[in-house]
């Protein structure tokens, strides 16, 4: 499978399926992603940001995300042998409009 296709497929599966993790019930409103997909393994740490702390992660562009209704961000790092690490950023926006017309990160 194409090297680009695996990360794209993984992102689609994570976001579209809305998979629940075991600890999701302990943190209402938390982002839930699988621990492993197609050999990509989650390192076990998840960083969380909100409207006050988004600048710690997106230095210099936080205002732009806030303008589009940013509410929360969860970040997980996945690793797979012989591949560069993959960082998944899951944004919660106030509206579907803000999510689809808002800023993007390269």
Structure description:
The protein is α+β, with helices and mostly antiparallel strands. The chain has one domain. The chain has four helices and four strands; from the N terminus they run αββααββα. It is elongated.
Outline the fold blueprint.
Layout: H1 5-17, E1 36-37, E2 40-50, H2 54-57, H3 62-67, E3 70-79, E4 86-93, H4 96-101
Antiparallel strand pairs: 1-2, 2-3, 3-4
At a glance:
This protein is of the alpha+beta class and 106 residues long.
Mean pLDDT: 76
Adjacency order of strands in the biggest sheet: 1-2-3-4
Task: Give the overall form.
Answer: elongated
Q: What share of the residues lie within helices?
A: 25-40%
What percent strand? Answer: 25-35%
- Contiguous runs where pLDDT drops below 50 for at least 5 residues: 8-26
Return the structural class: alpha+beta
| Amino- and carboxy-terminal Cα gap | 23 Å
Order of SSEs, N→C?
HEEHHEEH
Task: Please count the helical segments.
Answer: 4
Number of strands: 4
The biggest beta sheet, please? 4 strands, antiparallel
Number of domains: 1
